[in-house]
């Protein structure tokens, strides 16, 4: 079969330019792409048919921030944090040791398992990072692993995060030299993006700038972990250097808002040329786990900033790939409407990965990434929090769950 008609859709949320919600809808998939959208009564014939059974359909989630290459367990650290200990970035080193002890085949199996878990929850476009190696050999090993999965079509975007933390006992400037030099040279052919944790306890503004400028010079797109644990230079640096996203953004002042908003004033969403502005990626599952204030999604939107929602799946501060949970939390606790939260979890993530012309909305000509909910409408995501509401998932035109 080359084409499939998905019919009997009670509610189709398109997240297109008109942000349409269609009732009694149908979608035709031809190969990997969406070929037709409209009323089920007017649907054309196709080679095969899937009856959605009166369920709601959304674009697949675009998870633009994950850390899937790791081994080991940090549940004791989480338990201590829930008992009152504060979060510090240094916990990353615990994962480094366990990950370094794992074989290539063990790590690959773990990453594939986590990808499958994300897909089972409706995620159809997925980014992940290195960052638990923090040595030349380990970061190269992890980048090569992820590069293989990217070339095989199992991952959609790979980010180099050698600048995740200065390894214990090492000099920060010397390690920055390594990250911006030999380590970058070793991984650059296996990744599309570079990221840096610009934060107290990780990399300062000068060190972060060195890494990002070196990555930009070899053709990588830029991302920034910033303003997570307190006010800092991450947002300013991201906007100055034209980063695709600044992620976490828990502590945002008026100057940060203005800098982010200014990056969107120059972008024409109808044009297929030119990059979007700097997306503020909110990570609500991480905020709950670290007991940081939730990112100010409402303030960011009202300032004219595009936001994304992402899982930040990682072993220390957000061990979940559930975008359903993140979207639900955004509605219940971040003051986002359902429509705003769905857009942030789909089109917003696509903007953050510069993939908005291919994914992030249900439109003719885009990749057929669709999430069928076991509910008649999308509001059930927030109305019934925590319930297993993913019924079926289509990725690139093929049912994968």
Word description of this protein:
This protein is α/β, with parallel strands linked by helices. Helices cover 35% and strands 23% of the residues. Strands 5-6-7-8-9-10-11-12 form an eight-stranded parallel beta sheet. A seven-stranded mixed beta sheet has the order 3-2-1-4-13-14-15, with no helix packed on it. Strand 2 and strand 3 form a beta hairpin. The longest helix has 17 residues. It is globular and about 65 Å long. The model has no long low-confidence stretch (mean pLDDT 96).
Count the strands?
A: 15
Sheet-strand content, in percent, reads: 15-25%
The value of Rg in angstroms is 20 Å
User: How confident overall, as mean pLDDT?
Assistant: 96
Helicity level, as a percent range? 25-40%
Q: DSSP helix count?
A: 14
Estimate the global geometry from the Cα principal axes.
globular
What distance separates the N and C termini? 18 Å
Task: Name a few traits of the molecule.
single chain; alpha/beta; 7-stranded mixed sheet; 14 helices; globular
């Amino acid at each position: 079969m080359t084409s499939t008609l998905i019919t009997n859709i009670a509610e189709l949320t398109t997240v297109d330019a008109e942000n349409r919600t269609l009732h009694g809808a149908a979608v035709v998939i031809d190969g990997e792409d969406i070929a037709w959208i409209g009323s089920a009564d007017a649907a054309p014939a196709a080679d095969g048919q899937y009856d959605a059974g009166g369920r709601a359909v959304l674009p697949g989630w675009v998870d633009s921030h994950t850390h899937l290459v790791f081994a080991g367990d940090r549940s004791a650290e989480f338990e201590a944090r829930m008992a009152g200990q504060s979060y510090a970035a240094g916990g990353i080193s615990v994962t480094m040791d366990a990950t370094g002890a794992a074989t290539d085949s063990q790590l690959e199996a773990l990453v594939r398992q986590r990808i499958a878990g994300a897909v089972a929850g409706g995620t159809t476009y997925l980014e992940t990072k290195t960052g638990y190696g923090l040595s030349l050999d380990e970061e190269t090993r992890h980048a090569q692993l992820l590069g293989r999965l990217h070339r095989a079509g199992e991952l959609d975007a790979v980010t180099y995060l050698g600048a995740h933390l200065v390894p214990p006992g090492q000099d920060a400037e010397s390690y920055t030299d390594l990250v911006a030099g030999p380590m970058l040279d070793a991984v650059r052919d296996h990744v599309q993006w570079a990221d840096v944790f610009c934060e107290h306890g990780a990399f300062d503004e000068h060190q972060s700038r060195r890494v990002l400028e070196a990555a930009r010079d070899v053709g990588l797109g830029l991302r920034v972990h910033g303003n997570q644990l307190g006010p800092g230079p991450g947002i300013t640096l991201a906007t100055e250097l034209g980063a695709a996203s600044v992620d976490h953004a828990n502590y945002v002042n008026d100057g940060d808002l203005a800098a982010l908003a200014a990056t969107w004033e120059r972008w024409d969403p109808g044009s297929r040329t030119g990059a979007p502005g700097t997306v503020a990626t909110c990570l609500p599952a991480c905020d709950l786990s670290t007991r940081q204030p939730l990112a100010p999604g409402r303030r960011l939107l009202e300032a004219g900033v595009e936001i994304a929602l992402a899982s930040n799946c990682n072993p220390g501060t957000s061990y979940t790939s559930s975008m359903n949970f993140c979207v639900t939390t955004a509605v219940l606790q971040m003051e986002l409407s359902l429509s705003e939260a769905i857009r942030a979890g789909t089109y917003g993530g696509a903007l953050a990965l510069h993939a908005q012309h291919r994914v992030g909305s249900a439109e003719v000509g885009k990749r057929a990434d669709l999430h069928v909910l076991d509910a008649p409408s999308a509001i059930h995501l927030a109305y019934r929090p925590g319930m297993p509401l993913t019924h079926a998932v289509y990725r690139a035109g093929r049912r994968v769950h």
